[in-house]
Amino acid sequence: MKSVVIQCQLWGWMWGWCMVRGKNKLTAMQLRSAAEGVVQDGGGLFLDKRADGGKWTYRYSIAGRRRDMGLGSFPQVSLAAARQERDKWAAVLQGGLDPITERQRRVEAEAAAALDKGPTVEELVNMAFESLRPTLRDEGKRGRWLSPLRVHILPKIGKRRVGSLDQADIRDVLAPIWFAKPETARKASTRLRMAFELGRLARYPIDPFIVDIARQLLGKRPKRKHKHIASTAWQDVPDLYARLCESHTASHLCLRLIILTAVRGDAARGARVEEIEGDVWTVPADRIKGREGHVSDFRVPLSTAALEVIEMAKAVAVDGFLFPARKRTDKWGGITANALEKALTTLGEPGRPHGFRTSFRTWVQDQQTASYDVAETALGHIVGSEVERSYARSDLLDQRRLLMIRWANFVTGSESKVIELRRV
Prior knowledge:
This protein is of the alpha+beta class.
């Protein structure tokens, strides 16, 4: 039985060799003009030609069994390319191997080699994001952590296996934004390195140090002078506030509340009716700047002027939002940051909403109306070390209330007397 198998194999090798050495029968011109049907080129190469193209086949025999091996579609695979493929697999047949079985083995080996190079960059970035999600604001739903990577990194190397990357790849992908968008480049490279560090811990073939080398290859960026957000001089705030009082639109009312309370725009724009209790507004932690787990609800003392603004806003509130705006989903939400900036631009005011915090803080500094701790706490800034804060736990609400009344009196031009209010 064994001798029969060997004889069949030898016959198959000889037949394949003869077919390969046979004279080619076709030319490219003949192939284009040939009618539909099976066309033989010689050496076991056939084309099943159809109106919309065709299919190349390498026909061979091994161990007494005829086999047909697909070599691709026509005309995507040209006659010359099909002959090269035929010759390659005919050589495999001459070596005693079944071309179809050997091709499958090579595909599986390549797939295994790809796995040995670890996941793709995109897969690794998503793994890093999932591991960090509990520490991100709103569990990363705002998309800010992934944004620099999705825009500048993943479109270029997202499908690459991490084990195939080196410092030159990272350098090339960062180069377009390294000098043009330095802050974006910093975020993208830092977060990419975090993902690579996770990959290293997972024993994937990736070295986070290639990101550091890429940064060195890109060169040092010249230090740029920090550009502050445009702010209104505190001396000019009363005049601006008076002009804002001429309209009761959501944008004007929101800007007035931002001025009177010195809160950030996100806190004011999303303000809701139920957050106001008496003369205290409690801004929930999800609208307070800071890392997840490091922020908490923030109590804001409300002056008489601020309470008047809130009462006017309640009259036009929608779905609980004091400063409502219809969203793309046809649902209501807080007014947008662009709407506030547009309102200021229309009034000819170069200062921006966030700049009112600077106006307030500079007024405190110039007028010496409060201590450093009170002024910084009024802005929601962290004061003191972690150890100091573990003992000094007061949010200085009563002292901040007096400060905000003085500020409101200045802003509105009121000469009302500042009085001690009851503790809340």
